[in-house]
Amino acid sequence: MEWTMIASALIKNGPLVVIAAIFLKVYMDDTNIKRVERAEDRKLQKENNDKILNLTEKVTQSIETNKGEVRCLGEKLEVHNSSSGASLAEIKQGVNQIQKDVTILNSKIDDIADDMDKSA
Questions:
Q1: Residue 102 phi/psi, 5° resolution?
Q2: Are 40 and 47 in contact (CB under 8 A)?
Q3: pLDDT score at 34
Q4: Predicted pLDDT of residue 1
Q5: How far lies 117's CA from each of 106, 108, 109, 113, in Å?
Q6: What gap in Å lies between CA 21 and CA 18, rounded to an integer?
Q7: What span, in angstroms and rounded, lies between the C-alpha atoms of 13 and 26?
Q8: Local structure of 12: helix, strand or coil
Q9: Which UniProt keywords apply (predicted)?
Q10: What is the mean pLDDT of residues 75-102?
Q11: Mean pLDDT for the chain?
Q12: What is the pLDDT of residue 37?
């Protein structure tokens, strides 16, 4: 009895069943296409994320390299400044010593000139 009811329902509603089948087929195809598109989108997003990650790593490495170079240059500058400061201090000390020696020589010359004036 059930088969006869199903068969009679199909005969009576045949065109509706065909239309429903067509709509179901279109819906399934559309869903499948969207699923494939989403998979492609996820793949592209993953590739883009990987590229961004690689670029971020390169930038981080570059920053670390630059920090190291700046640190090294800073140390060299400190050494240069301290040695320049020491050299400048030595030069000032030498100039002061020369000034003292010149003062002593001038006083000796004055003493000799006074002695020559007294003996003449």
A1: -65, -40
A2: no
A3: 93
A4: 59
A5: 16, 14, 12, 6
A6: 5
A7: 20
A8: helix
A9: Membrane, Transmembrane, Transmembrane helix
A10: 77
A11: 83
A12: 94
Instruction: State the number of CA atoms in the 13 A half-sphere of 94 facing the CB.
Output: 6
Amino acid residing at 81: N
Q: Which amino acid is at 16?
A: L
Helix axes 2-12, 14-119, angle to 10 degrees: 80
Quote the pTM value: 0.44
Q: The tokens 């989108």 sit on which residue?
A: 41
Residues 6+ apart with CB under 8 A from 17: 10
The runs of H, that is alpha helices, within the chain are 2-12, 14-119
Q: Determine the average pLDDT of the residues in 7-25.
A: 79
Q: How far apart are CA 4 and CA 25, in angstroms?
A: 27
Q: Is the pLDDT of residue 9 over 90?
A: no
Domains of the chain: which residue ranges? Answer: 2-90
Confidence of residue 82 (pLDDT cuts 50, 70, 90): low
